[in-house]
Amino acid sequence: MNDENLIKSLLPAVEQQLESPDTPYVKKTFTRLVEKESLSPDGAKELIALCLAEESNRMFIDKRDFDVARYRELLDGLPGDPE
Asked: Taking the complete model, does pTM exceed 0.85, yes or no?
């Protein structure tokens, strides 16, 4: 799966996180990217999906649970490169 397909496959999860009361930090990041960084809504969602992909990949490689704190750090670092 190439990067573009990976991001597209994660967009539904990002949409769910934007609506969920359990992940208000995702909505906050989205709003910041759109309003303060002047990204398009689609562009903001793609960047969030990149962060989700990075943490999911790290979870798989390290054989550990999803690290919410690390995910939040990646989101806080946007619009830079999530790594």
From this structure: yes
